[in-house]
Amino acid sequence: MAQAFGYDTDFGYAEEPSFGTVTAPTNFNEINSESLQLTQSAIAKSTLNSAGENSYVLSKRAVGGSVEACVPFQGMELLFKNVTGGTPISTQVGATLVYNHVFVLGDDLDTYLSLYVGRDADAIGTAYNYSGCQISALTLTQDVESQLIANWEFIGKDESKVAASAPTFPAANAADWTQVSTATFNGGTVDAMVTEFKIENPLAEDRYKLGDRTRKGVGRSDTRKITGKVTLEFDDVAEYDLFRDSTETAIIMEWVGAVADAGEEYKFKITVPRAVFNGTTPNASEAGPLQMDMTFNGFTGTGAEDAITFEINNLLTTIP
Q: Would you kindly state where each structural domain of the chain is located, as residue ranges?
């Protein structure tokens, strides 16, 4: 064995056939950081015949943490499928090899993931699997001079040692700030400086039974929440009035990448059809340009619209 280094970290994942079944990774993504870990402890249970702690019981075992990664135009579909919970709709774009994938929201979170992390596995002789995982939150952030960043938060059942896998990563085609082609409020273009979209799936973390230290399942504990923020310069009252007047607003962001086939580009699109802003008045605190942080909540549409929709155009024909 030898010293492990962070620069040789692999992250992969796969859907499990049943909760907690350790499954070899079928998908890999390059990541910026990860904090997946096992938590457990010995809980002191002292008696009155000793001045010290003379007995203990073992705690619950749990795994959780987050993974930060750039969002590629192709290669992260399985995670988007699991955070939304619905069945993606895939449609061929004309006669090209490009397909449009719409990730819709589902009521039930009944699929679990096995997460694989190789922290320089060749050096230390093992990798780790985090089984029975669901996604408790996803935050997508786009800043100036940055790629589109996803922060995935997970809760799961247990950790185990596994053999190192040979990763195959998607092509380096992450969306970035120069590829933002659309940023609109109710169809009107806005000069966004920073955008953030968050989907929260509150999960039932405390599901244990006698005789088993690991979770018996996860699943929802509360309703899904859609929130976000768009930072703008205060150069027009139109956007501020959306907050002041509590106007329901459709927010659309789209990134357009290179040509995938026959003139059709790679694309990534976020739609929040019914947002209500909670932002603040753009107060003056310094001499420079005034800015507005337009925070919002997203709500289910008045028709059949989801509170948030992700669309990806790429060369995959279906989402597994």
A: 6-314
